[in-house]
Each structure stands twice: as structure tokens, then as C-alpha cells.
Amino acid sequence: MTMKVVRAAVAILQRPDGQVLLAERPAGKPWEGWWEFPGGKIEAGEEPYHALVRELHEELGIEVSTAYPWMLRRFDYPDRSVELHFFIVRAWQREPAGCEGQRLSWQNPHLLTVGPMLPANEPILAALNLPSLYAISNVLELGEQRFLAALQRVLDQGLQLLQLREKQLAVDALRALAEKVLALAQPYQARVLLNGEVDTARNLGFAGVHLSSEHLMALSERPQGMLCAASCHDRRQLEQAQRLALDFAVLSPVLPTLSHPDSQVLGWDGFSALAQGSSLPVYALGGMQSMDIEKAWQHGAHGIAMMRRAWEE
Predict the structure, then answer these.
(1) What does the alpha-carbon distance between residue 22 and residue 106 come to, in Å, rounded to a whole number?
(2) Integer angstrom CA distances of residue 72 from 41, 149, 263
(3) What distances in angstroms separate CA 213 from CA 27, 131, 275, one per listed residue?
(4) The organism sits in which domain of life (predicted)?
(5) What pLDDT is stored for residue 14 in this prediction?
(6) What's the pLDDT score for residue 263?
(7) Which of the residues in the chain have pLDDT under 70?
(8) Are 121 and 231 found together in one domain?
(9) Rounded distance, CA 254 to CA 250, Å?
(10) Which of 31, 43, 137, 171 sits at a 20 to 30 Å CA gap from 23?
């Protein structure tokens, strides 16, 4: 017997300070007392965005001003399957209110003070802990001294996620650089991933590993106990990242880059066609500048990844 699939539009209402709005399911409804992100069913023939706008008006009394497609996730409950179209909602009119008698609470996704969360929503909290910028090291071009000075500067400015990608370094040189980078990042609680082998990342004390597309396609299961991301360049690779339930993916190249001038680019439409159906947060990489973040959000990206531009003053 095939389970019924319920499609729903779900909103991550997000304040500038990063807090998100959660709602408690009221008495008399299934899963009463459990907490969830607001939203509701998509009606037959209705676009997910239009369902989102309608549901938030009915449930919270607000008018959506700015919303971006984010992730598409599926979850099986005992009696049905749900297909959840998540949107990040960054601007709205009027203060949200529980129009259906539900309690509301603004929460820091890093540290909830309400619960329990509906099972389908729990993985979303981990994704919300990922920042909009993913910086990639560039010691090869800058030299170690200039890179470390630039890293200190951007950490002071709020950098929270970094990939150490220096494949030209021998093991001993990589270990020495890693110690310096991790020491700089630690006071800021910034997470650093190593582009390299899983065991090396663990042994050196990295928060996680960033897999090349070749390494990604050779894996049968994801590394455990650490953040795990991967470089993807097409649908097949992105689908593999989703099958392995990685924490996020980087999709490239979106625009022409100096490092790969002859590579065929996805363009924003090509990026969107892949990213908007993803169950993982996806960063846009390739020719990115800070000013591209809004366009990236509009096309389904969680954020942008930058190498050269990340270290410019």
C-alpha cells in the first residue's frame, strides 16, 4: 500500500539576529504540544510560494515581503509521507500572532528552549547553524603570512565557516599550517573543515572534512562524528551528497573563475535548477562576490563560497 504524500510549504521566519519563529501545535491537532516551523498544506494546483504566503497570512496574520526557496525535504510518518518545501522568510509586515490558538516563540536555532520538535523539522536546525559565507583558504597565492593576517581580520569581522584547501602542501607543512589556523579560529568558535582525507581531518582536530567530487562519488556512507561537505558540479554528484546525508554541498562553477577559466559554467539558472530541489543546504561557488548573496538566495542557495574574494580588504 502506497502512503499518502502530503505537500506543504514551510517558513523559516528569520530575524536579523538569526532567531527563528517556532509554533506549538495546538490541542486537538495531531502531534499536539510538539513544536514546528509555521506553514501548511499546498493545495492542488497551487505553487509552493503562493501556499506559503497564504498559510502565513492565515496562521500568523502577516504579509510576506521577502522569501527565498531553500530546501526540499521528505519525511515518512507512520501514517503518511510529507514533502516539505522550505523557504527562508527575511521580511514581512506586521508582528506574527497565533491566529489559530498556537503558541509562538522566537528561538536561537543553536540552543532551543522549547520542544519537542516535530521529527521532520529537527534536521533543519542543524542546517540553520550554517552561516551564509563559506570561505576557502588561498595560501598558495597569498603566502602563509598574508593569509593568516587576512584570516585574523575576517574572523574579527564574523567569519564562522572555513575550508582549509591547500593540496600543494606536504603532510608536515599541512599539519603546521593547520595548527595555526585552528588556533586562530578557536576563540571565535569558527568551524574549520579540511579539504583532504577523513582520517587526516580527525587526527588534526578539524571540525569536519570537505570531500572532492571524486572522493564523494567513491563513498558508500558518510563519515560520522564530524561535519561533512562536498564539492559538486552536476546533478549526479549533488544527488550522491544527498544520498549520503552530508551536512551541505558546494555547487560550482556558477560564474567564470580565474582558477578555471575554461570550465563550463552553470549560470544562475543552471545553479537554481539543481539547488532548489536539494534536501541539503547548497553554497554557490565560482566568481562569487559579497554582493552576490542576495542573488544566490533568490536562486535557492544557502549562501556563497569564496576563495580569492574572501580575503580581500
Answers:
(1) 6
(2) 14, 39, 29
(3) 48, 22, 16
(4) Bacteria
(5) 96
(6) 75
(7) 1-2, 260-261
(8) no
(9) 10
(10) 43
Domain stops at, among 128, 163, 184:
128
Do 213 and 259 lie in one domain? The reply is yes
165: left (phi over 0), alpha (psi -120 to 50) or beta: beta
What's the half-sphere exposure (Cβ side, CA atoms, 13 Å) at 224? 2
Residues 65 and 146 grouped into a single domain: no
Average pLDDT of the chain is 94
The gap from C-alpha 169 to its chain's centroid, in whole angstroms, comes to 29
Residue 140 φ then ψ, to 5°: -55, -40
Identify which of 250, 222, 224 has the alpha carbon closest to the alpha carbon of residue 237: 250
Angle CA(84)–CA(89)–CA(93) in degrees, nearest 5? 130
Query: pLDDT tens digit string along 234-257?
Result: 999 999 999 999 999 999 999 987
* Residue 96 grid cell: 506574527
Q: Domain span at residue 52?
A: 5-128
Residues 20 and 162 in one domain: no
Domain tally, the chain: 2
- Whether 119 and 145 map to the same domain: the answer is no
CA 186 to chain centre: 22
Alpha-carbon torsion (106, 296, 138, 147), positive or negative: negative
Co-location of 66 and 113 in the same domain: yes
User: What is the model's pLDDT at position 80?
Assistant: 83
- Residue burial 206-238, b: 16+ Cβ < 10 Å; e: rest: bbbbbbebebbeebeebbeebbbbbbbbeeebb
- CATH number of residue 74's parent domain: 3.90.79.10
Using CA atoms, how far apart are residues 111 and 19, in angstroms rounded to an integer?
10
> 185-208, pLDDT tens digit by residue?
999 999 999 999 999 999 999 999
| Domain closes at, from 99, 128, 157 | 128
The pLDDT of residue 2 is: 64
